[in-house]
Amino acid sequence: MGILQAVILGIVQGLSEFLPISSSAHLVIFSNLYKVFIEGNPAEQSTQEIFLDIMLHLGTLIAVLIYFRKDIIKIIKSLTTGIKTKDFSDKEAKTGLYILIGTVFTVLIAYPLNTVAEDLVFRPCAVGVLLVITGCLLLGSEIYSKKISDKSNTIDIKTSIIMAIAQGIAALPGFSRSGLTIASGLLCKKDRVSTAKYSFLLSIPIILGASMLYPLIKIDLKELIGFNWQAIILGTIVSAITGYLCIKYFLRFLGKYSLAFFGYYCIIVGILTFAFFAFISMGL
């Protein structure tokens, strides 16, 4: 794994983690494309590449923490006070409580899907199919949302749980985490910007947990010594910077435009991904 590959994947992760186009799908697609055109074969991911994926997600987590730092501090303070006083009437305290509850639901859904998710990393055709489904869900939620005139900007416990379940399902590469959670929020009659903001905050515990636990469980720590740390660190930094800029401008975009563009994008890329890698697998 070289620096060029790490930088490219860092940009891809930073953009696709927050845009509703599935970061995991794009990492799978670009990683496999890199192997086909640069290395000459679509070989399986090495342990180092798996660790790079984790670090790139950590980079986007850093982007969320920096961008929403003021909101996060308020939520932590209010949640702490709420736990002490057993009073969660404050908006920030409720948000913090909903995120904690939502994280439990996400883990309950995502954990059983872990083996399937790991297998899909080596099946870009299947990832393409799931990407098409993501696109259809985005378009469907937008059509439904346009029919709702009284959208709310407040996330309630019901919406939080539904979004958390969607986040768990999105453990499968091809299902966009932000796409499924935002679509779920729209189907619960919430507005785009509030739903997207909550979606980003909801991702924090999951990404943090995966970044810390996965290496301890799946990777032999002795292997870390031989990794290309220059490439990994640079890719992580690129992912964080790209992710920060993506959050900033994506929220502005949602304030004016719909998710339809991303729905069509997912469908087109999904179809092309399926067709290309099906073509490659047949050796044509």
Topology:
Layout lengths: L2 H14 L6 H17 L7 H21 L1 H17 L5 H20 L3 H7 L3 H23 L10 H13 L7 H11 L4 H27 L10 H26 L5 H22 L3
Helix pairs in contact: 1-2, 1-3, 1-11, 2-7, 3-10, 3-11, 4-5, 5-8, 5-10, 7-9, 7-12, 8-9, 9-10
Which features characterize this protein?
mainly alpha, globular
Question: What do these coordinates show?
Answer:
The protein has 284 residues and is mainly alpha-helical. It has one domain. Helices cover 77% and strands 0% of the residues. The longest helix has 27 residues. The radius of gyration is 19 Å and the shape is globular.
Number of strands: 0
Number of helices: 12
In what range is the share of β-strand residues? Answer: under 5%
Can you give the helix content as a percent range?
A: over 70%
Broad shape:
globular
Summarize the structure.
The chain is an all-alpha fold and 284 residues long.
